[in-house]
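Exercise 7.
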Amino acid sequence: MDTAIQAPVERSFAGIVAPIITAVFAVYLTMGMTLGLLPGFIKNDLKQDSLFVGIVIGLQSLATLLTRAYAGKLTDTRGAKASNRTGIGLILLAGGIYVAATGATGNPALAFALLLLARIVHGVSESLAVTGALAWGIGLVGLQRSGKVMTWNGIAMYAGIAIGAPVAIGLENVFGAGYVFAGIILLSVVSWLATLRLPALAVTEGHVRTPFYKVIHLIAGQGLGLAFASVGFACISSFIALLFAQRLWGEPSMAFMAFGACYVLTRVFCASFPDRFGGYRVALVSLSVEILGQLLIACSSSPAMVVVGCGVTGIGFSLIFPALGVLAIKKVSPQMRGTALGAYAAFFDLSLGLAGPAAGIIAGWYREQAVYLFGAVSCMLAIVALLWNRNKK
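Solution. The predicted structure, written as C-alpha cells, is:
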C-alpha cells in the first residue's frame, strides 16, 4: 500500500508531470504498435479474415471499459502509484504473450488464443496504468492544475498511438513481428523507470468509499457530455476514408493530418485554459467549435472543405476531456478521485464502442456525409447535458 508522503512543495510542475507524461507515452506506444502489427499478422501469418482482426483489436477496448471501476478502486485504496505500477507490470506480461503468439504460428488456433489473452491483459493494463497516472499527477501538482495534467496526458496518449503504428510497421519489415512485440517489454521497463523518483501519494486509511454507481451518478453530466462530444471524433476516424472514396477525392491523409495537428496544437498552446477559465466555459466553447467542424464536413462540396472541417473538429474536440474532467473530479472527495477518473473515462470508452455502429447504420440509410450531421447533433446534446447538470451538486 502506498503510504508515502505527499510530493515536496518546491517540486516544479514540469518536474512532476514530465516523468508521468513520458510513462504514459511509452504505454500508448505499445498500444499503437499492436494496432500497426496485429491486422497484418492475423491475416498474413495466421490466415484469418477481417472478422478475426476486428475481434482481436476490439477486445482490448472492451477489457479496458470493463475494468475502469476496478482501476479506480485500486487507485483509491492502494494508491495511484501502485495502480500505475500494476498496469505497467501487466504490459510487460502482455508483451511476453504477444511474443509467444508469434512463436506459435505453426498452430494458428493456439496463436490466436494467445493473442486474445494478450489483448485482454493489455486492455486491463491500460485501465490501471492510465487511471493511476492521471490520479498520481493531479495529486502531486494539486487540483488547481488538474486540467493541465489531463491535457498533457492526452497529448502523450494520442502521440503514442499515432507514432507507434507506423514505427511498428517499419520495424516489422526489418526485424519481424516477434522482435517488435518484444519492444513492448522494453517500453514497459521505460515506463516504469520514468517515474521511479516520483513520490507516492499518501492513502487515507479507513475512508468510507462511495459505491461506483453513485460516483457515476455524480459525474453523469460531465460523462454524458464527453460521450456525446466523442461521437464527432469517432465519425472522422471511421468514415472519412469512405467519404473520400465515395466522392472519388483520392487519399484522405490530409483530413486525418488536419484533425491530428489541430488537436495536438490546441492542447499544447491551450493546456491551461480549463484551469484558468473554468471547465464549463471551455467545454461549451469547444463544443460549439466542434459543431461547426462537423457541419463543414456534412455540407462539404470539395476535399479542401472536408480537411478544414476536420481541422476545426480537432480544435473543438481537443479540450473536451480535460475541461469536463476538471469538473468531474471536483464532484468527489480526493480519496475517490481515482474512481471518478475511471468512471469518467468509461463514458469515452462506451461512446467509441457505440458511435461507430450507430454511424454505420446512418451511413447505410442515407450517405456518408449524414454521419457528420449525427456528430453535430451529438455535440448539441452534449451542450444540453452540461447545461442541465450545471447546478447539480
